[in-house]
Amino acid sequence: MPNGYQHMVLDYYVAKLRKAKAQRQAELKAIKTRDQALVYQRTIRQAVEEAFGPWPETVPLNLKVTGIEQFDGWHIEKLLFESRPGFLVSALLYVPEAAKNGKVPGVLATCGHAIEGKACSTYQEFAQRLVKNDFMVLAYDPIHQGERDQYALLKKQGVTGFPGLCGAHNFMGRQLELLGDSFAAWRVWDGRVALSVLLARPEVDASHVGVTGNSGGGTLSEWLWACEPRLTMAAPSCHITTLLGDLENELPRDAEQYPRGILAAGLELADLMIVRAPKPAIILGQRFDFFERRGFFEACEDVSDFYEVLGAGDKFEMFLGPTTHGYSV
């Protein structure tokens, strides 16, 4: 039997988000002073805490170096640590030769939806570019990516037909929702612990520590930016547009890309960049990305205007590259 409802549910939510957009735009346009901007930031910060918190207790990292790979002017340390009791996180630490001579800036590298995780060529390439420019980079595997297969035992037991990467993310997301928890929060907590690992290195200059990632890594880098005050700069790539635009375009997203309560709070993606203003930030996009340019420019305008109100217009930039989904030089 053909579906006679067509876009009924979609249209319902599009209408709700359009109404929320009009209200949010009116609130932003009314912000004329620094004090008004700080009040708006406090509102966002509260929504962020409710979306991702409460955070678990910190546990011993039980950090292990499992190997070292030496290259010309830099090396990689292969790491394992725990973000929760017995919950292992695999990572690569890119260490520049310059770290022997003094402190260097650090970057937390977040991976997008590549089953290879930190081994994906996209993330190896940008990590290598950074380390060759004297940044220390920590790239870690997100849950169910790289070395962190969450269903390896099922496969050994002969279970077949299990969903791929995005399906697994949504599977875990639904399980956690039933427990009143959030897969987004689990991913962010891994990142916060990874940041602690990076900052524990005496060679890292804690006053210059940023985060960047592409696609789902762009999502994760923005969530970390909103949640983690120790970060001093951010460069999310090929993620930031508008939630309304994504819905209108029927663009799929995973469970972790819609933190609980964000829509109900009337927030947009730009707000999770605004929350850390006036810290330095750049939003990266691509001309032919599937995240539409209209939403990209709209989000960047919101963030730019907010920085201007704070007298920090020079601390925010946007970059639109000439290619498709990914980084470009």
Q: How many beta-strand runs? A: 9
Strand order of the largest sheet: 1-2-3-5-4-6-7-8-9
Radius of gyration: 20 Å
* CATH architectural name: 3-Layer(aba) Sandwich
CATH top level? Alpha Beta
The domain tally reads 1
Give helix % range: 25-40%
Structural class label: alpha/beta
- Main sheet: strands, sense, barrel: 9 strands, mixed
- Spans where pLDDT lies below 50 across 5 or more residues: none
Strand-residue fraction? 15-25%
Could you tell me the CATH topology label: Rossmann fold
Element-by-element helix/strand order: HHEEEEHEHHHEHEHHEHE
If helices are DSSP runs of H or I spanning 4 or more residues, what is the number of helices? 10
CATH superfamily: Alpha/Beta hydrolase fold, catalytic domain
Distance between the termini: 51 Å
Structural description of this entry:
This protein has helices at 8-29, 34-52, 121-131, 152-156, 165-178, 183-199, 216-227, 243-248, 271-274, 293-309, and strands spanning 64-71, 74-84, 87-96, 104-110, 136-140, 204-214, 233-237, 281-286, 316-321. With 329 residues, the protein is an alpha/beta fold. The chain has a single domain (64-321), classed as 3-Layer(aba) Sandwich (Rossmann fold). Helix 6 packs across helix 7 (216-227).
